[in-house]
Design brief:
By secondary structure, the chain is α/β, with parallel strands linked by helices. The protein has two domains: about 5-120, Response regulator (Rossmann fold), CATH 3.40.50.2300; about 130-225, Orthogonal Bundle (Arc Repressor Mutant, subunit A). It has eight helices and twelve strands. Strand 8 and strand 9 form a beta hairpin. The radius of gyration is 20 Å and the shape is elongated.
């Protein structure tokens, strides 16, 4: 599953270098060059990590960070800044940032900090191979499902990836667009019914009554949701 990073940086040469290297590491990167755009993206879309430059047009990084945390978003935040004073570092951390890196920085150190921050994100660093709910058990490694009746089934890699994404974001609606971005990326896109068919399969596997689902929901015009 692709990890999504939001980069808010107004210096074009720095931004292009960061985006290139993050994409080479296998991350999917969204770039915002202005503060208001960065805050809008951070609060309307889901990211696994947010990188904020402090000095941005329209709205500075500190204000963006504060707005993200006030919205209840716990995504890890890394500040990038030309200012290296302890006052700025302390302010950023007080507002909810997780790490702070001063420009110019070493690329290898930057990428290492990215990896370390992603490890702190529970939605990314889920080390459990087994998930259970309502007497159903899912084995992420073997791709095996054991339902409440004790019946064992095997699902495809893509079905398991979607299942894990829904579980990691339990009680949240995930849009079709985000699912396509995370699970298919630049590959040939599935048919419009593929995700719906996956949801129908989950209902047959896990629901007591597939026509009245309690766990796997399709929200018309919005997306899909898992309720434990």
């Amino acid at each position: 599953m692709l990890l999504k990073i939001l980069l808010a940086e107004d210096e074009e040469n720095i931004a292009s270098t960061i985006v290139l290297n993050l994409e080479l590491e296998g991350y999917m990167v969204s770039h915002a060059s202005k503060g208001k755009q960065a805050l809008e993206l951070a609060t309307k879309k889901h990211y696994d990590l947010i990188i904020l430059d402090v000095m941005l047009p329209e709205m500075d990084g500190f204000t963006i960070c504060e707005g993200i945390r006030k919205a209840g978003i716990t995504t890890p935040i890394l500040f990038l800044t030309a200012k290296g004073t302890s006052t700025d570092r302390v302010l950023g951390l007080k507002l909810g940032a997780d790490d702070y890196l001063t420009k110019p920085f070493d690329l290898e150190e930057f990428l290492l900090r990215i990896k370390n921050l992603l490890k702190r994100n529970p939605a990314v660093n889920d080390t459990s191979n087994i998930y259970s709910f309502n007497n159903n058990t899912i084995n992420y490694i073997s791709y095996e499902i054991t339902n409440s009746k004790g019946e064992v089934s095997t699902v495809s890699k893509r079905e398991m990836e979607l299942l894990k994404l829904l579980i990691q974001r339990a009680n949240q609606v995930i849009s079709r667009e985000e699912i396509l971005e995370r699970l298919w990326n630049d590959e040939s896109l599935p048919t419009p019914r593929t995700i719906d068919n996956f949801i129908l399969s989950y209902r047959k596997l896990f629901e007591q009554n597939s026509k009245e689902p309690q766990h796997f929901h399709s929200i018309r015009g919005v997306g899909y949701k898992f309720t434990p």
